[in-house]
Design brief:
By secondary structure, the protein is an alpha+beta fold. It has helices at 2-44, 195-200; strands at residues 45-49, 64-68, 82-85, 96-102, 107-111, 114-117, 120-121, 141-142, 147-151, 169-170, 174-181, 186-187.
Length: 201
Amino acid sequence: MEFEIEYQRGRRRKRRRSVATKIFIWIVQIAAVVLLAYFIINVVLEKTSVLGDSMETTLSDGDMIIVNKFSYLFGNPKRGDVIVFKQSGSEHDYYDVKRVVGLPGETIQIVDGVVYINGEEMQEKIVCETMLISGLAKDRFTLEEEEYFVLGDNRNNSEDSRFANIGTIVRDEIVGKAWLRLNEFGFISTMNLRKDDEEKK
């Protein structure tokens, strides 16, 4: 009889331990999911909206986009990337969205609406108008280390690196790469490309 009672007690203890273990594992899994979601939302991705028409016809005013903040953690922006940045000391608190044209160490000049990189004409990969204003890039200048020259795709209706209120963008000011457009779903890197570049993709 005593053996039977001890046996039953042992089974109940094992059952309680099993339930406690399952609850502990469940709590750990929930915590892991919450931490992963927090990491993705706050470290890897961020949602923002496009303000203004400077990126037409790639992106329009009010477009909701996802910024990949992880993309430049182990690398640097490339020519043609659409980046999201917030300039230090800027009076406004919103993000700017522009396309990278000039990279650190390169010499930039705009002549008759054409961008020259290190003295050679840059072949545009996107559909855009010929620029009417060269601005600060009228005279040749060289980008310093970690400096980027950016332009809006709507070249004649864009405040960008041609103008003193924007100027060149410093690496630390770049939030990330514009990755997805949400309202009309699409990968931003594939938008507004010239037909010959679309065929290469």
